[in-house]
Amino acid sequence: MRFIGAGSRPGQPHVDRDLIFTVPNFLTVLRFMGVPIFIWLVLAQKEYGYAVLVLAIMGSTDWVDGYVARRFNQASKLGRVMDPIADRIALLAVAVTLVIAGVVHWWYLAALVIPDAVLLAMSLFYFHSHPGLPVSLIGKVRTGLLLLGTPLLVLSKLDFPFAGACFVAAWIVLGLGLIGHWVAAYNYFWAIRRKGKLLAAGDDGGS
Asked: What pLDDT does residue 36 have?
């Protein structure tokens, strides 16, 4: 069973519908709600075990909402915008929390924030909102790696025999995720620039 694009129906085109109350959108909101719970568990309670469980649930919803959207024709325009935003907020909020808790250094947070800040500035400059670009394959893989590596890193803070192995595995996965993050950002940078210039050229031609 494939993980990327799971639930797609062969021969049926992907259509984003004008829907709001769908199962995928509910799962995306659930991912939003997991963020403050994770922050509370790590910073206030120091409960890293439960924090890993919350991260695992958040990560699973990222895959499940995409599967349900494709399998049951519940893909929506709102979900297309909201899903990547939920991913970014979750990854950044978790990274900030782990920096404060001393689990990771500030450079990890900077490596996540800088590409997203550049893309946000470009999106606001060209479109004054979300650019409406489809999520790339490398973007999906990047998100998956970061969502997998983060709970492994938190798990390595627990006192158990394989904590050291979890730490090494976590940074291998996170390292690959960060490389993918920058490669995806590079591709989105040029995609936003091309779309922005085409939009500007169309406006000039119509005026």
From this structure: 95
pLDDT value at 112 more than 90: yes
pTM of the model: 0.82
Spell out the SS3 assignment of 150-205: HHHHHHCCCCCCCHHHHHHHHHHHHHHHHHHHHHHHHHHHHHHHHHHHHHHHHHHH
% of the chain exceeding 90 in pLDDT: 51
Find the range with the poorest average confidence among 6-10, 99-103, 112-116, 157-161.
6-10
Mean pLDDT score across all residues of the chain? 86
CA distance 57 to 130: 27
2 is written with which tokens? 């494939």
Is the CB of residue 53 less than 8 Å from the CB of residue 38? no
Contacts 24+ apart (CB under 8 A), 141-145: 141/4, 141/180, 142/177, 142/180, 142/181, 142/183, 142/184, 143/62, 143/87, 143/91, 143/177, 144/3, 144/59, 144/62, 144/63, 144/177, 145/173, 145/174, 145/176, 145/177, 145/180
* SS3 of residue 76 by DSSP: strand
